[in-house]
Amino acid sequence: MAAKVRSIAERNASETPPRSSRPGSVTTADSVAFAAVTAEPSSIHLEPSQPIAPDVLLPGDPGRAMALAQQLLAKPLMSNHSRGLWGYSGETREGMPLTIQSTGMGGPSAAIVLHELAELGVRRAIRVGTCAALEGSLELGELVVAEAALPGDGVSRALGQQGPVEPDPALHSSLERAAACRPVLIASTDLFHEYDEAPREGWIRAGAAVVEMECAPLFTLGRRLGVALACALIVSDVFAGAERVRIEPEALGRSVQRMGAAAAAALAF
Questions:
Q1: Comparing 1-122 with 126-269, is the CATH topology the same?
Q2: How confident is the model at residue 5 (pLDDT cuts 50, 70, 90)?
């Protein structure tokens, strides 16, 4: 199925020029709805073959980007496959332009993607990912939104962020309303696998409810770039003592659908 979807998207991308590049077809609506993609896009790692919308969802997983594109876009077209960072552009069934671009794993990769999307005209972005619970009351499959992020990652520190970094207030408010779930303090780290319990204990003492890898660097960089950021996460892992318990794939898929619908609704407010 994945190969079939990719081949269709790539064929459409190669056979059909973007609306904004067809001679005589550029309209005011086109220029407002989509950021222009030139023959030589001003990005190094992303190579967009379709127009990039000003509103973007940012999953880490390329496969999740494809699944969200199939769910949310009426006619998804692959906009990027460079570096294995699959991206898709199109319109939602309500007619809203939307791009879904995977970031890969961790802050450095996410920072590169966000920087280049900003150069391509992106103005609002919502990270849609997974996290591990630090708080015992959270359950597998539960949806949370980030009210702030503790910068335990290298990208945030390299950008000078010392304390918790907050999302864009307006976008966060829209996401919280659309998701109808609790806002939590999250911790961002560079390590997925745990080699020492001390960091987890420190995050818990600081009040963090979950831990993940991309939120703080995206929030921090978004402020510099003038891109409004918010973050929604599915609890995919919980800790039973020292043991990590992972959500089942089918349950994760259902939860991701809920998260994607909420994030798209937040951008539509």
A1: yes
A2: very low
The residue behind tokens 């999302």 is 167
The ranges assigned to domains in the chain are: 1-122, 126-269
CB within 8 Å of 198: residues ≥ 6 apart: none
Label each residue of the chain as H, E or C: CHHHHHHHHHHHHHHCCCHHHCCCCCCHHHHHHCECCCCCCCCCCCCCCCCECCEEEECCCHHHHHHHHHHHECCCEEEECHHHCCEEEEEECCCCEEEEECCCCCHHHHHHHHHHHHHCCCCEEEEEEEEEECCCCCCCCCEEEEEEEEEECHHHHHCCCCCCECCCHHHHHHHHHHHCCCEEEEEEECCCCCCCCHHHHHHHHCCCCEEECCHHHHHHHHHHHCCEEEEEEEEEEEEECCEEEECCHHHHHHHHHHHHHHHHHHHHC
Judged against a pLDDT cut of 70, whether residue 158 lies above it is answered with yes
Q: Which CATH architecture has domain 1-122?
A: 3-Layer(aba) Sandwich (3.40)
Give residue 42's pLDDT: 65
Give the pLDDT of residue 34: 46
Kindly indicate whether the domain formed by 126-269 is annotated with CATH number 3.40.50.1580. Answer: yes
Residue 65's pLDDT is 98
| Weakest-pLDDT range from 18-32, 79-93, 212-226 | 18-32
